[in-house]
Amino acid sequence: MTSKPAPSPAPRQPGARRRPAQPAQQDRRARQDADAQGQAALAELGLPAGASIELLQALHILTREGRLNQDSRRKLKQVLHLVQFIEPLIHDIDRQRSAESAQSAQSAKSADATADAGPVLVDHGAGKSYLGFILYDLVLRPLGRGRVIGVEWRPALVAQSQALAQRQGFARMDFLPMAVADAQQHPALPARVDIVTALHACDTATDDAIAFGLAKRAQAMVLVPCCQAEVAAHLRRNKALQLARTPLAELWRHPLHTRELGSHVTNVMRCLYLQACGYQVTVTELTGWEHSMKNELIIARWSGQRQRSARERLQAMAEQLGLQQWLQQRFALPAPAQEKP
Ligand SMILES: C[S@@+](CC[C@H](N)C(=O)[O-])C[C@H]1O[C@@H](n2cnc3c(N)ncnc32)[C@H](O)[C@@H]1O
């Protein structure tokens, strides 16, 4: 079959003006341009073509014209790096939950409705919820189950995230206006939570997130701590005593060193604590140092092996640094009877 050539447009008369596009046409063209730019930006970021351009625009990662917003690029890089670690955890836990659900159905018990609903992730100190939204769009939306709950104590940010989730039709996202420390007992949160995240949650909010994860028997915790002032305050208080006792107190003689050492000691002790409580811990970098000063990523996976040696090292370290009181206040250690050597 031969097709007729398309009729060519009538030649424009010399001097004739091009008719200006109608507003609707202009709108459509602008939308098409933004979409094409957005698709190019997704490819540049290594995101799948199905990722929501509208969501990235609402999070100000893409401009209205679909171009990459250079200021937000750094945030997106951090979040995408975290997603690489969290995505396999979500799939592992989802498989585990589906198997549990099938087993309980087979043994004629009523099927576990919470297992069918997929993994539950709670993001503490959620801020604008970049992490929650990107995780939902890239992982939980295609999975078709699972829930993200953002905990954030600034009500305006919570309202903003709720509105965005509604606009995007992300029905399995919730945002709760509360302090991390109050979330553990709050009835709006489920009894069991699979994954706990805290990305740059300020000061002791990371410690509250760890306590939350332990209480909810989380399978995994993914933590990027921010600065922590509590340990530095204890180091400062005991400085004169420690300088007389050990030359290692020189490590925190100067105020700047006290602050930096305080943050470092806190993270080391958090890791030992998680190991003592039955988690396997990995410590790595979030992104290159040029992108964030607070760059330590702690990934803890439940192994059920409460390590006695970790508890003993934690207690010895606290004693050396004069932090016994802080340790007692902050970390509830497991009873020795539950431990493995
Ligand atoms: C540095 S921002 C990080 C936000 C987000 N996680 C991110 O990385 O984009 C820290 C957020 O945690 C919130 N926050 C700090 N301490 C908190 C607490 N104890 N309880 C609830 N929210 C807290 C702050 O209001 C802020 O929005």
From TrEMBL:
Bias (Pro residues) occurs at 1-12
Cellular component annotations (GO), alphabetically ordered: cytoplasm
Residue ranges constituting the Methyltransferase domain according to the UniProt record: 74-233
Identify the stretch(es) annotated as Disordered.
Answer: 1-38
Task: Enumerate the UniProt keywords alphabetically.
Answer: Methyltransferase, Transferase
Q: Which SUPFAM superfamilies match?
A: S-adenosyl-L-methionine-dependent methyltransferases
Official protein name in the record: SAM-dependent methyltransferase
